[in-house]
Fold each of these.
Amino acid sequence: MIKVGIIGCGGIANAKHLPALSHQAHRVEIVAFCDIIKERAEKAAKEYGTPDAKVYTDYKELLQDESIRTIHVLTPNVSHCEITVAALEAGKDVICEKPMAATPADAQKMLDAQKKSGHILTIGYQNRCRQDSLTLKKMCDDGELGEIYFAKAQAIRRRGVPTWGVFPNKALQGGGPLIDIGTHSLDLTLWMMNNYKPKSVMGASFQKLGRLLQPGDQGNTMGVWDPNTYEVEDSAFGFVTMENGAVIVIEAAWALNTLEVCEALTQLCGTKAGADMKDGLRINKIMYDKQTVIKPDCRTPKGVDFFAGASAKSAEDTECEAFYDAVEGKGSPVVKPEEAFVVTQILDAVYRSAESGQLITF
Ligand SMILES: NC(=O)c1ccc[n+]([C@@H]2O[C@H](COP(=O)([O-])OP(=O)(O)OC[C@H]3O[C@@H](n4cnc5c(N)ncnc54)[C@H](O)[C@@H]3O)[C@@H](O)[C@H]2O)c1
């Protein structure tokens, strides 16, 4: 059995990683849990751990356990680098939550540690594993869209400010919606385009609503936030040119007065066809001189009850399975760290451009 250690036992641990790991029970067992809030680690250990699972409040102590082979890094953004580097140096394979890091310098340290250690590092961009994403990726790789020269990376909430954890805390998260959800849509977009060579970035960010809207006047879908401790942007936008001339527009918001809401989507325009994911996957092209829209049915097929393989896997199960296949030497994880590094570079450039008003070139 592959022995697993969990670092960070909060929202994403309980919503994604622990349930997904429970579906890999034939080859993994979770033997160690760490959280600076001990009760969270204890609760997760009780629910998902082996009977003798250990509980820690210091991740460095957990990493000393040589029997542990893989680490899931599920802590706030700014700590991803330190914990991931330490885990790789301790000889573990690592899946770290998105975004890879808060800065390119930190992401570079993670890449260096991965190369030096020879261990696996992947980043939790599970949106790549949705059925619509997997279908669109195949179409892109098969050339169905032709050359993709314009794209939008979209993650826009009308009112969706996360109110658990430390999300509006700049020092711990590195930023707001751009680094939190814009990161998913940019990752999807670059992956679909298979283009990781940015040339320049112009960005703008706003903090118009986070500090302004008082409890009782927020209409938030995720509880009430405290405007007095709201430190990050509430929306951000980027205009990215790529070395080959292609352009990507990034739109990210936790709060924006718009009805055009969407989460972790990409829109692609190629020479042969276009695609968007707003109303399910839609391909637009000209067929027999007619403007045509094709809508592949990407819902999880239900199949026939009781027969193995009847249902498609969830995104988080697919991500987890690919990671453990890679750990067993049977393939690659879904996300390469070099790809997540470029996402971090571009998002950092949007922030720097927004702050300076200048064009950032690579
Ligand atoms: N893939 C996704 O769609 C997705 C969704 C939500 C969050 N996330 C990512 O997951 C990460 C955590 O977010 P969350 O929503 O679970 O936040 P959270 O606050 O609910 O959980 C984080 C946990 O880490 C613990 N922690 C903080 N510092 C620690 C340390 N040094 N050592 C051990 N434990 C520590 C906290 O006490 C907390 O319990 C973030 O990077 C976030 O971007 C990803």
Note: DSSP finds ten helices and 15 strands in the chain.
Amino acid sequence: MKKNILIIGGGIGGLVCGAILSIEGYSVRVLEKHKVAGGGLHTFKRNDIEFETGMHLISGFQHNGTLNKLFSYIGIVDKLHIKPADEDGFDHFHVAADGVTYKMARGQDNFVKTLSTYFPEEKENIRDYIKKIYQICENIPIYNLRMPSADIYSNIEVMETSISDLIASYTDNPKLQTVLAWNNAMYGGRKNKTPAYVGALITHFYIEGASRFVGGSQHLADALVQIIEENGGEVLTNTSASFIDIKEQHILKVVAENGKEYMADWYISSIHPSSMFKIVDTCNFKKAYYQRIDNIQNSNSAFITFVTFKPQSFPYQNYSNFYAHDYDDVWNCAEYTSESWPRGCMYLTPPMTYHDTFAKKMIISTIMKFDSVKKWENTTIGKRGPEYENFKTNYENKVLDMMEKIFPDFRSKINTVFSASPLTIRDYYNVKEGAIYGTISDCNNMPVSQIPIRTKIDNFLLTGQNINLHGILGVPLTAILTCGELIGLDKLLKNIKEKNLSLPTFLK
Ligand SMILES: Cc1cc2nc3c(=O)[nH]c(=O)nc-3n(C[C@H](O)[C@H](O)[C@H](O)COP(=O)(O)OP(=O)(O)OC[C@H]3O[C@@H](n4cnc5c(N)ncnc54)[C@H](O)[C@@H]3O)c2cc1C
């Protein structure tokens, strides 16, 4: 008889687990609190324009890319609409202090060659650093869909060294050190803290295949839901899990807010562990385990400004932009006062079609700590009061002032502008402190910042961005590991690798 699986949370973590398990013969049910599944893949409409909530920069779909292999196995690559970012500059990093824009080019050699034009005397160091990044990634088994070593600390060097120290071991040039960490704001990298393997994975991942979803990321979520349903499973939206009933180290059932009860053989939580602990009786977990996990540091949150443009007023850019006032801001973007905020931003014009010439929208992401909105922490969406609305307008204006420095007359091109704060992110995802990337790893104390997939509850597994690594890369890789606990990881990896590869529409 088919084993039943109940998954709490229908973001990419829950949906990829659901798709894999339904393909492998399990009976899957996903509970999602929102009216539409997707979590960070979800898109919403304003003024007839679709906006992404949490998946702007993607990669891995190029031929032989890790995600290309995973989603070929799931059988949905053909349904994905993906546009590669510019070959000669998928990311532009602009430092206002000396007015230089550094272009990050796709492909190992191209990246080294392009960056060396700004630092000719550092060419060898750049080449050696990137070579090291590639070596580190080659040695991360799951990234290459190989069986991980039984000893997870066998790669201790890249776990206990920070990405900032690794960079500094290749170059003394302080400008180059920050330029090589240009994407910190995007993935939440922290000086002396973020492990080298995290920085290496993300850098390698984007150099190899930086791209974007065309028309928003919701279609990936929809395709995953369809696979689950085609295999006899179901995704129940508007269904928030409100209690996990545990007896003698075994889950008996999950109760939803609407009073319905769901029973299964196995349960998987893909939500933030602190949110999960709010719906269990925590005395079912050892105090040390519960307190350690509940107290793991979270990533920063963000203030996101969404802009729609007047027709044909702003060119479409097939790259993402990272902007810093000065080099130091790359590492210190979360250290600000209300006067010095924002210390930089990431902005992009997501493609609406494959052949956009003008942009209809822009998303501007600025790092913001939860502390900045803490005084409204007991309010809910739409009911936060006029003081909060003024705060948002004030901070939107700070963002637009910064954009005016980059593009004089920026405001004159805008049709509408609105924003989301760390509170929006907290309440939308049900994630502590609105942490955009969930919990963070600290190379100074790896065992403490790692959350194992297995729990002491005998039929309960964890998945999602808080386990291992966030984002379009980290979450699906963890989903493979989580499903591997049930299917057998070696069998699952073999099944994934045996499937014929297909390519997304635009890459054919
Ligand atoms: C503003 C922003 C920008 C980002 N940009 C990028 C990017 O460009 N590239 C990238 O790779 N990553 C990006 N990320 C990170 C990425 O979105 C996440 O790592 C990823 O979506 C997390 O997936 P998940 O499934 O672990 O969690 P989520 O997507 O948060 O999914 C969890 C789901 O569980 C649901 N849920 C919560 N509680 C309950 C409950 N009690 N019962 C039922 N359902 C529940 C939520 O509604 C949600 O749908 C960004 C994140 C944010 C916030």
Note: Residues 300-434 form one domain.
